[in-house]
Amino acid sequence: MKTWYKRPFPVLSALVIAAVVFAMVGEKVKAGGEGTITGTVKLNGTAPHMKGIDMSKDPVCSQQHQSKPATMENIMVGANGGIQNVVLYISDGLSAGAASAVPSEEPSFDQKGCMYTPHVMAVDVNQKFKVVTSDQTTHNIHPLPAAGTGNIGWNKSQPPGAPPIETDWKAQEIAIPVKCNIHPWMHGWHVVVKGPYAVTDENGNFTIKNVPAGSYTVTAWQEEYGTQTAKVTVAGGQAAKADFTFKAK
Amino acid sequence: MNSRLLRLTNAAVIVGFLALPALVQAQISEYQEKQWLDTPAATSHIGNLTGNAHAATEPYRRYCTVCHGELGDGNGESAYWFDTPLFFKPRDFTTAVFKCRSTPTGTLPTDEDIYDSIGRGLDRSNMPPWNTFSAQMRADLVAWIKHYSPRWQTEKPGEPIVIPPEPEVTAERIKAGQDVFNRVQCWKCHGVEGRGNGPSASTLQDDQGRPILPYNFAEGGRFKCGTSDADLYKIFMTGLDGTPMPSFSDNIKPEEAWDLVFFLRTLQPFHTKAKELAKGLNLKPINPNAPPPSQ
Questions:
Q1: What fold characterizes domain B36-154?
Q2: Is the CB of residue A60 less than 8 Å away from at least one CB of chain B?
Q3: pLDDT of A26 higher than 50
Q4: What ipTM does this complex have?
Q5: How far apart are CA A247 and CA A220, in angstroms?
Q6: Contacts of B245 in chain A (CB under 8 A)
């Protein structure tokens, strides 16, 4: 009579199968219990003056800013000191599966009043996005990724009424400057991240959705002030808090 | 006797120190060569010619290094002196971004594209036409250039754009070409009469943030990327990557593109059939300061 430990292979393989099944079910349970990370990004100090933009070279542009003069958008500070257009993303702690998940939404990067709306657009690696134009003047859209990142720059024109350009970025890059050579004041950013992300609203508030339970490093990126990080632990289905403060230069 | 020996030793030490940076640079270059010189990307195929990067080692050092640099980064010893918008900096081969392509914007050029640029030179720049080189030598140099950027290891050249056969030039086509010129607003940079003096001309910058000028049609210089009608077609449909000149392929149909070619020819000071036909049309340039259409 043979005992089970003398024939280990069937027992072991049964254990492996059980472990795999458990892991798969476990993953699904986790996916159902996704939490969020919310918070505010604030500025410590007085908001810097944003220079006005002289658009008189192109009357189509200046005409759209007659009631409210256009200004630079590098540091947009709300009434309560919150900073707009800060990108929040998870820089460490994500599982490979969560990092490679691509959202199905397709954000738009609009050229409106000879400004970029939004000024900062965050996308996931391989997430499709659209470049559209609302202006009655020709723009050229010219993203300039750094060499060696895996992203390749291009330069396309969008005359009035041009169809949207649908494309994506192939690699993480924080951040890709986007410019229009015809209107030298036009400057925006594409922030390409892996995994869940959020961009702050005009009061500096953000919510990163669909974060699986776990411990993470969250990074806040601001185009002038650089990055800040915070450690955050998300419990399944719960909202975790993370606040950031940038010091005015 | 003793002091002379001392002086000699001192001199040797100083020379040794001065040679150090050169040695370090040579090592980086050697490292790159080891990495990419023996890969399939470091060969070129132009017609029935096959270029081999190894064969271009000597010619590159002799003719190209002075501007494009030992490391192909466009930082040769003469590069420092190229400091006007007219005479832009030498090409940096490590980024593999090229102006003259038959392929869409954001893609690598074909071997023929680089081969043609070497033989043609770039007018109004410090790049002369190297048409004294044998075809084989130019093919070898194309292979050599391709060993400088990792992009050639992972990417394929873009699919060359399809250029339909050139139709007969007619007055209607020239007129239609001006409509395209106005619609896509070429005049924003090139000016309403193509004199390179559009409202945005003075603020243009290349990808490295250096000032650059739009082409002046009235001056009639050769285009940087070839002089034929098909070359002109290619220039605005693929764009000149690394410069402010974008690709218009999403917004100009192939038929319209030929119309635009014919119209652009009328802006140049040459006796062409297009120019002759345009005289009868009496085309007026649009007014760029006209009030914008109400929205």
A1: Cytochrome Bc1 Complex; Chain D, domain 2 (1.10.760)
A2: yes
A3: no
A4: 0.84
A5: 13
A6: 155
